[in-house]
Amino acid sequence: MSDDGGLAILLLGPAGGTALYWALYRYYRNTDKSHAFERETAVVAKPVTGAEKDRKVDEVKGTRESRIHGDNVGKYRQRVQRLQGDSNANRPIAEQSGPD
After folding, report:
1. Rounded-to-integer distance, Cα 100 and Cα 94, Å
2. What pTM was computed for the model?
């Protein structure tokens, strides 16, 4: 093998890697196929509808109430219920078996 042939093979690797990187970048970025949405797309605005059916229900100003009326924060048993057929229902936490 001559010196020129060896140098060509050594330069073929980085050149091929650069070409592959460039091809993948162009493929995934689609820089040559993209368009400017704001300039090339016409958007026609229409008036807002539904105002004739809207009605005011309530008005809340400020934070006079520190709690929401009807919350169930203090009723733990009502919020969280144990699944039916749970074998660990009546055993202390330290004795409950975990998943095997």
Report:
1. 16
2. 0.31
